[in-house]
Each structure stands twice: as C-alpha cells, then as structure tokens.
Amino acid sequence: MADTADPRTEPVDPADWSCPVPLRDHPVVVMGHGGGGALSAELVEHLFVPAYGNEALAGLRDSAEVALGGARLAFSTDSYVVRPLFFPGGGIGDLAVNGTVNDLAMSGARAAFLSCAFIVEEGTEMSVVRRVAQAIGTAAAAADVEVVTGDTKVVEAGHGDGVYVNTAGIGLIPEGVDIRPHRAAPGDVVIVSGPVGQHGVAILSVREGLEFGAEVCSDTAPLGGLVQAMLAVTPDLHALRDPTRGGLAAALNEIAAASGTGVVLSERALPVPEAVASACGFLGLDPLYVANEGRLVAFVPREHADAVLAAMHAHPQGTEAAVIGECVADHPGTVVARTALGGTRVVDLPLGEQLPRIC
C-alpha cells in the first residue's frame, strides 16, 4: 500500500479555515443588514451597487473620490440612529460630525463643508433637539468644518426614536495622495491609532445600565488632523479605515479582501483598555468586533512606519498608537491573529452585529 500523508502533520493554510457561505436569502431586512458585517456587505454588493452602478461607487470606500473642475474631491454621507442619544463621552451630535469628517479623512481629504438633516419624532422635547444641534455646532468647530446646508423633517409619534441625523461632507484630496484599500501590499505595517472597543462598550453600559468597575467613555473624535500629520511624513499611505460598525475586524477584512493580501495580527499588541476587556469578557464579546468612533487603522509601507508612528504619537488623537500586525502574501484575503498562547485563529468578517444601534 502506498504511503499516505497524515493530514494532521501537513501545513495548514489559514485561508482554508473559514467556510464560504452562499448568499443568504432574506425576504425582509433584518438588523444585521446595518451592522457593518457580512450581511451589510451583501446588501451593498448585491442590491445597491447593481442599482446605482458607477465607477466611483464600485470602490466601496469610506468616501467616494470624484473629480470636479480639475479638483479631486472626497464625498461621503452617513446617517446616525444611535440609542441612547447621549452617552459617556459624547452623543449623536458628535457622531454625526466626526463620523463624516473621519470618512473623508480616510481618503486623505481635509473636510471643508457638511450638510446636516434632522428627522425628529413628534413629541420630542425641544431641549433635546437643541442639545443635539449645539453639539453638532461645537463638534464642527473642533473639526474645522462648516455646516452650510440642512433639512428638517418631523414624523408622527411612534414612527421614530427621538432624533435621527444625517450628515454629508466634501473635502479636497491633496495632490499626490492615493489612499485606497486596494493599495495594501505585503510588507505593510498595520498601525491602530489608539485603544479599541470604547465606543461600543460605552453605548452598551448606558443602554443596559451595566457597570464594569470604571466608566467607559466613547472615543468619538475627529481624525482629520491626525491624518494630515501622517501625510506630512509621507503621502504614500496605502490604506486607511476608521473601524466603526463591525469594529477592527470588519475594517481589516475589508482591506484584506480588496487588496488580495493576508493580514497577521498580534493579539498581545492590541491596545484594549482594561475596562473594555473586562466588559467584553463578561458579555462574551471580542474587542476586535466592537465599534470605535475615533480610531483609525493604517497600512503603511515598512520604510515609513517608524516615522509615521512617531508623528501619530505627537498628535493628541494618536498618543497611544501601536503597531498591531503586518500585511503578508500568505492566505490572501484572510485576517489571522496570533494569540497570547502561541496559537493562530482566523478573524473573520462578522455576520451581523454584536451591538445594535451604536452610531
């Protein structure tokens, strides 16, 4: 009988560890379609992209790059339906400004103008609407962006949840800057700008009335200044993403899939605050999948990584930036993490969402 290799001793390719799932057939929308995971990706890829079909949309970036009058513009829009409206560290007003400003920044653009639309439920106290509007004005000033147009609609009582906000923004992309998820390449160093998981845990603590030994505040913040400081070191940043819905895991998987490269993380290097780690352990959550609203992940060519990291440390939004991994040629499109015990696990795209209504 011919010798047969024992499969237990054969090298294992992490790309083979996840089982491809066929497109899920949902006759109705479920909450997971808005969670930033696999269901969201399917909704966009199989419904919206074919319906709109254009080159700017096909890139599926945080903000679209469009040309107008010889200028390269970044253009983005987002809607905010977070519950509760106010939470430790911020509120829906901060999110509405910072979220759109940050989406523009992920293309390297400096945000210039925002629009802001309110959908208000009948019966909402005027003091609540005023508080949200004032927070938007304060956050816009802090981000050095102007709210120049808007809209207000009121829906019947019971047909909303207090206040929903939509913001759209435009900004200029500097000459020589080409930041796209497709540009991530083997050898790139993966850097996160600070501790992860704070926003999602902050929302959950207020919504569910939970305490985790110390108050966890949202990390909501504008990242435009941090990105400009990084670009001052080198315009050759390959990819940027702010890991909001779906957390760091979703952002890394999107970049890995778009670029056709593998990503290897070191779990020991992940900056997870003790209170966030405790909360996630108590609730059975993985900090990699918990939303952030003031963090970015960067794929930086290795020759520029030390200088970019130093520039991040010198900026208020990057003082705790850390190298968390690298981009590799192996297992293309797959993200894996080396555990503290020396093992390796696949960090897959989440199916739906762990924490609903976080932005």
UniProtKB/TrEMBL annotation:
UniProt-listed CDD domains: HypE
Residue ranges that the Swiss-Prot or TrEMBL entry lists as coiled coil: none
Every PurM-like N-terminal domain range: 63-173
Gene3D superfamilies: PurM-like C-terminal domain (3.90.650.10), PurM-like, N-terminal domain (3.30.1330.10)
Highest taxon above the source species: Bacteria
Domain PurM-like C-terminal residues, every copy: 186-335
Cited Pfam families: AIRS (PF00586), AIRS_C (PF02769)
Family designation: Belongs to the HypE family.
NCBIfam families: hypE
Protein name from the UniProt record: Hydrogenase expression/formation protein HypE
Source species of the chain: Streptomyces macrosporus
